[in-house]
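Hi U.,

Before I forget, here's the chain from the pilot set. I'm dumping it here mostly so it's searchable later in email.
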Amino acid sequence: MTATNQLGEAPIRKLFFQNYGPAIISLLSSIVHQVINGIILGQQIGKDGLAAVGLYGPVVIVLVALSLPVMIGGGVLIGKSIGAGDLRQVQQVFQFATTLVILFGTCVAISAPFSAIPLAQFLAGAANLTLAENTADYAFWQLLGLPFFFLGMIWGNFVRANNAPKVSRNASILAACVNIVLDLILIVGCGLGVKGASIATSIALATGATYLFVYIFKGNTHFSFFSFRFTLKLPQWKEYFKIGLPSFASEIAFSSGLLLINQSLIHFGATAVAAFGLVNYLSFLLIRPFTAAMIAALPIMSFNIGARQPQRVLETLWFSLGFTLLLGIVVTAIGLFLSDQLIVLFSGDQNMAYRKIASQAMSLYFLLFLAAGPNYLLAAFLQSTGKTIISLFINLLKGFLLVAPALLILPDYFGLPGIWLSRSLAEILTFIIIATYTMYYKGRYFSVSAVVPSI
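Structure:
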């Protein structure tokens, strides 16, 4: 059985874990290097070093948002095109996506010397000069390495859509190893602090992108560089961005919600802002297993939509939903029962006021993981089956539309804990609302004809 045929014929559970294994290893390799990076920064610099990385998180989400329509839309179209046997369209999508991210990434990189300091002052607040300086150092090198960040994301996803998830995994592992080595050299050996961490990450991203370039260049995929040409023309561009729009809205809304939380916390002082930096950093790490589930499920669903096998698409959805629900319980328990240990490990801060605020934040903020995975999967499924509006609504609800009123109401009654609860409440309420609505109109969203029309 060929790799392509496996997507259309092999048992769904087996396929899911064949994809989830490389995806989670890839993401775990990223987590390992970020954990080591965090420990080094926390122990060498203190809470302000790690907080700078965490505060930059919303910017990362915005940048990811800008690449996601290209990455997700392209990945779904490539998967569908391979399933339908349309290899000409596969190459067109690859050329268009690569051209777009190189052009945009280069423009942002050029702006780095002018944008890093104002951005850091906005994120950290003008009062905390040390935190603002660390954030500016980190932001500058991250923005400079943005083209490699974009290329690694889209090429990795396209390779997964081509049913070669282990290659994407290997690229991530290589990047993580390079990052760890460079962290030790630049942070510990050279004493460059946050700047060293950012330089290490940028070089590592370039290494991962280069690995993917070599794999594609060798002719191992349905798309190639041999007939490649830079182009911003794509006949299917409307479908492309329609598929990718919900992912873009998700990240923009999520980032906006985080920025609102961040700005709300400034009034509670520098300790609360630093605690949010830590909690935000850890949440980015622990969201990865849920992202891996979406990454594992999406190529299976996309291929079988193209191959007109809707039952396999639905089977993939139900299995992955159950898996992420169980996973959410485990990750939430980590936030509830291991918060003190995580704070000491990552911040190196023995200040009891800081530890108390950070522990409370983690316990309440990590409740969002109860619904994060199912929301990811439902949005991805609806997105790939052409239900753009409802997918878009999921992402806007959980990222911003429910966060904003929660921040207006909850702090008045609960004080600082109300801010920590805002994201969790938005995520859980979104799942309840969308699950209730889509199951009520089950035929519109989960029937065979809803997945693949005219069947």
